[in-house]
């Protein structure tokens, strides 16, 4: 089971707090104030390290530093140098630039000076200097990477929005080329037909305009998505994550190697003929295998013979125990981290606990249960740090892939939306242009006056279509249902239908959706019917609105629902509505039902 970054940071802080508490409780001189301050410093570390709290961190950092060093002033006898790792991490997180690293050096130097003044052995002085640096670096790495990962997560929605905007602009240019140029040509031809020329010139211009409009309408009905690869914006923090994690892992490993060697050198007098030389030979082998495993994970591959290489690292780590050499247990947490990274979920955590338990058991057998707790938690904290720093770097590759997929999904969603908008909002205008043009051609010989009226309406329809096309690129636009009702009456009457309208006013989220539904319904009437009578009725009752469009003269039904019906159903479903159609002979009825106001819970804009 993979830990989330925030839980990983919180777990590491809690484990390292237990390390310090068990260490101080193991000392007879440790007072209650010291233990309380250790817990208080850890509690303050949580809001400092978790993402999204940087302003609070700046205020808490001085408080944490005071609480950390308070026992040195109040209970100097219980102070144990080397326990300022949380303050070191906070310094790196809160202070920026070179000053942060200078402050880390100051903290390590102070710890070393205090240890020397307390007459600690060289091993104790080394521990006092190295411990805050290692804990500080590990926690800084985990916190910093988690914060960067948190920022990347926040950027995903912005990235999706940018991808949608880019795709809308691309499709807008496609629509301009596809529709706007065609409708503009229709408008020019209709204007020339109205103003000048004999019957033959009018016929030629209107015929050309109808052909252009019909071609544009056919292309709108089968508008293809814009092809071509989409640019994926680079992640600003990706390289920072990689640059941050790798040096921290290397430095921490090197410092722990030094501590292991100090533990070895601080032991009793060594016999050159004993197995001690084997320990010195196996230590570099263990760390070579450690880096081999971590490098493979960073490269995103699984090493060949993984079971054998893990077994070899375990042998190199624990074989000196057979000769009673325990100095290497201080680095067993690194082996536990590798096992946690590579082993599958059902066994990874039990194995990790078992590996850390070996270090704890050694402390129990040699000294006390508190030392067992200290060594167990220290190994577990190291394992969590190795796991977190390596896993978060691996997540960068995952996020890059997710970012590319997110761009594609956002663009595809926008393509479908624009395609639907073009079909629904421009289809009626193009259909009206074709209708008026064909009527004008039929009437040109018999009634030139009425024919020219249809040419004028053709011009008006072209202008309205251009206005609708311009509105396609206006985000957040919404059609007026009242305006669509008036437009429906004019278009249907111009087609020779007797129109009856009974429309109640509608407001709220349903209005623009029903306006589009009404527009598409009227387009379908013009395309698939020769209507003699048409009824449009809009009623509101009990918080729901009903839109009915009924007409006669409908053409025979096709087997599959058209693009328009599918689009209307999708729009209504997005606001909790539904669409039904019925047919009886040549009479066709379309009924849309929707709540007047509905919270939009869909992912589309």
From TrEMBL:
<keyword id="KW-0902">Two-component regulatory system</keyword>
<feature type="transmembrane region" description="Helical">
    <location>
        <begin position="86"/>
        <end position="110"/>
    </location>
</feature>
<keyword id="KW-0472">Membrane</keyword>
<feature type="transmembrane region" description="Helical">
    <location>
        <begin position="244"/>
        <end position="265"/>
    </location>
</feature>
<keyword id="KW-0418">Kinase</keyword>
<keyword id="KW-0808">Transferase</keyword>
<dbReference type="InterPro" id="IPR011712">
    <property type="entry name" value="Sig_transdc_His_kin_sub3_dim/P"/>
</dbReference>
<dbReference type="GO" id="GO:0046983">
    <property type="term" value="F:protein dimerization activity"/>
</dbReference>
<dbReference type="Pfam" id="PF07730">
    <property type="entry name" value="HisKA_3"/>
</dbReference>
<dbReference type="InterPro" id="IPR036890">
    <property type="entry name" value="HATPase_C_sf"/>
</dbReference>
<dbReference type="GO" id="GO:0016020">
    <property type="term" value="C:membrane"/>
</dbReference>
<keyword id="KW-1133">Transmembrane helix</keyword>
<feature type="transmembrane region" description="Helical">
    <location>
        <begin position="30"/>
        <end position="50"/>
    </location>
</feature>
<dbReference type="InterPro" id="IPR050482">
    <property type="entry name" value="Sensor_HK_TwoCompSys"/>
</dbReference>
<feature type="domain" description="Signal transduction histidine kinase subgroup 3 dimerisation and phosphoacceptor">
    <location>
        <begin position="414"/>
        <end position="468"/>
    </location>
</feature>
<feature type="transmembrane region" description="Helical">
    <location>
        <begin position="348"/>
        <end position="366"/>
    </location>
</feature>
<dbReference type="GO" id="GO:0000155">
    <property type="term" value="F:phosphorelay sensor kinase activity"/>
</dbReference>
<feature type="transmembrane region" description="Helical">
    <location>
        <begin position="125"/>
        <end position="149"/>
    </location>
</feature>
<feature type="transmembrane region" description="Helical">
    <location>
        <begin position="277"/>
        <end position="296"/>
    </location>
</feature>
<protein>
    <submittedName>
        <fullName>Two-component system sensor histidine kinase DesK</fullName>
        <ecNumber>2.7.13.3</ecNumber>
    </submittedName>
</protein>
<feature type="transmembrane region" description="Helical">
    <location>
        <begin position="372"/>
        <end position="394"/>
    </location>
</feature>
<feature type="transmembrane region" description="Helical">
    <location>
        <begin position="6"/>
        <end position="23"/>
    </location>
</feature>
<keyword id="KW-0812">Transmembrane</keyword>
